[in-house]
Specification:
three-stranded antiparallel β-sheet, Glutamyl-tRNA Synthetase, domain 3, elongated, about 500 residues, single chain, mainly alpha, Glutamyl-tRNA Synthetase, domain 2, two-stranded parallel ribbon
């Protein structure tokens, strides 16, 4: 049995400081897939020790986003589990105890430097073009003196006593062994002056106590990965398998996306935040398919995957550490593919909220009839609104510049329109086939081109230059509605020309 075939325990550990973005969603997805594939456990852990940046609604939003994407978890703050609590804010005392153990073992020390002094140290080091690391002034303070100063109420933090010599080797599943020269590392803060543990200590302690086997995370954690490795080694803990994912680049492929660029995307109908995707008309199935391929591939030709497909085919060994650009055109492509996979009822159900949001009462029965004639034309679900809203409108607003038949005067248009109306009134079997036959016959008799004839008819019944297939639309609308709209169009021409 290979390492990956064994049941894994993985955690997705978001900080509730903002919206869930594509990078974090990808991490969660990979965690979920490998857990499900191996019959292991997928754990949701909320890392909420950054109390200043905490957003009250973020935790629930993250959970809602994950559920929308089709992921559930085996252990977490809402479902419980044997290793709880699953919010780091509820584990403060645990981190303090392990911080104290590090001090006792000689691997951590108390630092009493003021923010002002630390700022001066950083400034001086930057002038000398040195890494802005702490100068280790407090490292030599005896434990006895430190405890006396703490008892006296002096503000302090807890720092890790990084080895000053030698190297630390981090074994990454994607990148192999990465060697760090210890003298280049900082004495990182583990517990802040307010008593809250930072990620470095809290994550290491939790990963150990929760028996995490694989840590899948962003490559931004690579620079501090030797610290996390050293903490595990110091306690004599088994290190998890480290998996640092590829960097996600902005669509141009040049650098990571800034907040300003992320905001600009919304004006183009795109977003990097999961909360926006449903509103923009994307299917969670398409989003999962798209995200999965940002740094992973099954082979050199397969690109369409359902969650079920991914659960069976995903493997950590096929992850690619190379940076991956966010390609929204590819997202549109996958969305079209997954929309085509929906049956009529499913598509109708997915489209309905967009009509409701626009104040249009669109019943499921009619939407089911519309689904087959719009499916091939949809890139996003919200496309259906502009394409098919005319089915549900009581009155059609006509465009003066489009209503006249191309190349015809108002009188000519009225004459042909009146004949169309008369021909439609005589049709007994109101279906796509009979409508097609009768209208094409009349078009030929009038000596008109299809572009002229059908554009006018489309405008008359929909008020739109572009619509779903004409005769299918007329069939769905029904004879009384089509006749009424054609009459209204003729009256509009009479009144405006």
């Amino acid at each position: 049995m290979t390492q990956e075939e064994k049941p894994v325990r993985v955690r997705f550990a978001p900080s509730p400081t903002g919206h869930l973005h594509l990078g974090s969603a990808r991490t969660a997805l990979y965690d979920y897939l490998i857990a499900r594939k191996t019959g292991g456990q997928f754990i949701l852990r909320i890392e909420d020790t950054d109390r200043k940046r905490l957003v009250e609604s973020a935790e629930q939003e993250i959970m809602d986003n994950l559920h929308w994407l089709g992921m559930d978890w085996d252990e977490g703050p809402d479902v419980g589990g044997p290793c709880g609590p699953y919010r780091q804010s509820e584990r403060k005392q645990i981190y303090q105890e392990y911080g104290d153990k590090l001090v006792e073992l000689g691997y951590a020390y108390y630092c009493f430097c003021t923010p002002e002094r630390l700022a001066k140290v950083r400034e001086e080091k930057q002038k000398r073009k040195e890494p802005p690391h702490y100068d280790r002034t407090c490292r030599s303070i005896s434990l006895e003196e430190a405890r006396e100063r703490i008892a006296a109420g002096e503000s302090h933090v807890l720092r890790f006593k990084t080895p000053l010599e030698g190297t630390t080797v981090v074994k990454d599943l994607l990148r192999g062994e990465i060697t760090f020269d210890n003298k280049t590392l900082d004495d990182y803060i583990l517990i802040k002056s307010d008593g809250w543990a930072l990620y470095h200590l809290a994550a290491a302690v939790d990963d150990h106590l929760m028996e995490i086997t694989h840590v899948i995370r962003s490559s931004e954690w690579l620079p501090t990965s030797p610290l996390h490795s050293l903490i595990h080694q110091t306690f004599g803990w088994q290190e998890p398998v480290w998996v640092h994912l590829s960097v996600l680049l902005k669509p141009s492929g040049k650098g990571k996306m800034s907040k300003r660029e992320a905001m600009e995307l919304s004006g183009e109908g795109y977003s990097i935040f999961i909360k926006d995707m449903e509103k923009l008309g994307y299917l969670p199935e398409a989003l999962v398919n798209w995200i999965a391929l940002m740094g992973w591939s099954y082979d050199d030709h397969t690109e369409f995957f359902t969650m079920q497909d991914l659960t069976g085919k995903f493997s950590l060994e096929k992850l690619n550490p190379s940076p991956a650009a966010i390609n929204f055109s590819k997202l549109d492509h996958f969305n079209k593919l997954h929309i085509k996979e929906l049956n009529d009822k499913e598509l109708a159900t997915r489209m309905q909220p967009f009509f409701t949001h626009a104040g249009i009462s669109a019943d499921i029965e009619t939407l089911e009839k519309i689904a087959p004639i719009v499916r091939e034309r949809l890139t996003t679900l919200d496309d259906a609104l502009e394409m098919a809203k005319f089915f549900f409108e009581s009155y059609i607003t006509y465009d003066v510049e489009r209503i006249l038949m191309e190349g015809c005067t108002n009188q000519e248009t009225l004459a042909i329109g009146t004949q169309i109306l008369a021909a439609l009134e005589t049709i007994q079997e109101w279906n796509t086939e009979t409508l097609d036959i009768n209208m094409r016959k009349l078009m030929e008799e009038e000596g008109k081109q299809a572009r002229q004839f059908f554009s006018f008819l489309r405008e008359a019944i929909s008020g739109q230059k572009v619509s779903p297939p004409l005769f299918e639309s007329m069939h769905i609308l029904g004879k009384p509605v089509v006749l009424q709209r054609l009459q209204s169009a003729l009256i509009f021409i009479q009144d405006n020309f």
